[in-house]
Specification:
Elements lengths: L1 H25 L17 E11 L5 E13 L4 E5 L6 H8 L7 E6 L2 E2 L5 H7 E4 L10 H6 L7 H10 L3 H5 L18 H15 L3 E5 L7 H14 L4 E5 L11 E6 L2 E6 L1 H7 L2 H14 L3
Parallel strand pairs: 3-8, 3-9, 6-7, 7-8
Antiparallel strand pairs: 1-2, 1-4, 4-5, 9-10
Length: 292
Amino acid sequence: LVKIMYANSFNQRSNDALNRIEDILRSPLTKEPEKSVLPEKYDIEFKDVVFSYKTEAGNDSRNAVNGITLHIPEHSLTALVGPSGGGKTTLVNLLGRFWEADSGSISIGGVDIRDIKTSDLLHTVGFVFQENKLFKESILENIRYGKKDATREEVMEALRKAECMDIIEKLPAGIDTVYGTKGTYVSGGEAQRLAVARALLQDAPIIVLDEATAFADAENEYKIKKTFDVLLKDKTVIMIAHRLSSVVTADKICVIDEGRVAETGTHAELLKRKGLYAGMWENFKKGIEWKV
């Protein structure tokens, strides 16, 4: 019975993996421009952007992004906050062309992202996601995904800036250790720090942080935030956060709810309006004060 249970579990996992592979193979190819237009400035403009995920039946579900218009100035820090499922992550995924908007436009420095080749776009926009994947390759090659032609010295410098040397020192072969072999793994917080090193090496002018400290313990979170001082300098930054204490100093806070921009402003301005953000802030403070 135990063998049957394991066989059934493996069968379900295999079927799920095959279905996900087939979904990728069935996905339409991204349309590439004949000639890539590179932006000279790095402000971002979302204009009447609408997007909905397709259901299994091929129909559209409700709009995940429902007519968002938003301008993000160059060299500014803009925070996206709001209830879960409101469309924050979907919006930044559209910026990277991981999905294509159903209507509306997204531009960087006045250049429509559809006029930028995806390879150039992903060198322009760097992502640090909530859950980062490390591939079964050496740590060196994992970090090099941020910049394929980087030298060993450049990778080491990025790791130093990202406060990752303590991770490298405990690996059996340092940065040449192949991740996933012989039980070589790192914690979620350490994986986040390695992802930040990858972003540092890439040195993209636009950085998207999607809950970048979500899986980090206190020590890892401190080191990640310390690294942000280097990573975010002179960049255009979009930060998605549920922990509101991390966005109070943002140049602009945008509250996204049900696929729309509910309100925008600084922390102080939004508190004065006593709207959705003010309610979220009160709940956040109560959560901090809660004790057993």
